[in-house]
C-alpha cells in the first residue's frame, strides 16, 4: 500500500515538501561556511583562507555574524527544493506521457535528464531573488543585516529586477 497515488496532487506536494526539507535545511545549516566562502571571493586580501575568514568574521561581527543571510538562504533554497523535487516528477510524467509507455522506458535516461533540466530551470528562477539578497547581506558591509532590510533597499535602488 502506498501513501498516495503516483502522479496525484498529494504525490507532487509530498515531493515538494521533501525538496523544501532537504534543500532548505541543508543549505541553511552551512550558512557560516557559505558566508566565509562568499567573503573570500569578494575580498581575498581580507579573508585569506577559510579559517582566517571565520576568525575575521567572529572578531568583527561576533558569533552571530556567522548566521548573516540565513533567512534568504532558507527561503530561497526551500523554494528551489520545492520546484526541483516537485517539478521533476511533473515533467517526468508529462514527458513520459508524451513519449508513450514503451518509448518512455526505452529512453528513460534521456527522459529523466530532460525532466531534471526542466525542473532545475524553474527551481533556479525561484531561488534567484533570495540569493541576490543573501549575497548583498553577506558581502556588502553596511548594506543590510536582515532580509527585511535588504529587500526594500534592493527594490528602491534597482526596482523589481534587483
From TrEMBL:
It is a multi-pass membrane protein. One of its GO terms (molecular function) is phosphate transmembrane transporter activity. This is Solute carrier family 25 member 3. Gene3D superfamilies: Mitochondrial carrier domain (1.50.40.10). Solcar repeats lie at residues 10-94, 107-162. It catalyses: phosphate(in) + H(+)(in) = phosphate(out) + H(+)(out). GO terms for cellular component: mitochondrial inner membrane. Keywords: Membrane, Mitochondrion, Mitochondrion inner membrane, Repeat, Transmembrane, Transmembrane helix, Transport. The keyword Transmembrane applies. PANTHER family: SOLUTE CARRIER FAMILY 25 (MITOCHONDRIAL CARRIER PHOSPHATE CARRIER), MEMBER 3, LIKE-RELATED-RELATED (PTHR45671), SOLUTE CARRIER FAMILY 25 MEMBER 3 (PTHR45671:SF10). It comes from the Eukaryota. It comes from Nyctiprogne leucopyga. Its main location: mitochondrion. Interacts with PPIF; the interaction is impaired by CsA.
